[in-house]
Please model this.
Amino acid sequence: MSGHIVPKKTYYTIFLLLMVLLAVTVLIAYLDLDHATGIGGLNIIVALSIAFTKMMLVVLYFMHMKWSSKLTWIFGGASILWLILMLVITLADYFSRGWVMFTNK
Model:
């Protein structure tokens, strides 16, 4: 079984796109989009959207997922679902606890 050969131009293009997205992430971190637009939490939504886009570029091109078999896609999707399940269970436990406030006497 031979692997897919990706031209160097593709790698350079994806790298350049990742650097542009990095610069946009840094720029967005200095802007206060929450107060500028009146939408609460917009900074974190934009930052996570950019991070998700960068993650997908790395997975698809640098990890060769774009040219992989369907079985690899199934395992990749299952691992993402497993991660989401573990985060949901952990956060459900964290947010359901009653926190005790101690005072200094």
In short: Residues 68-98 form one domain. The two ends are 72 Å apart (CA to CA). The mean pLDDT is 91.
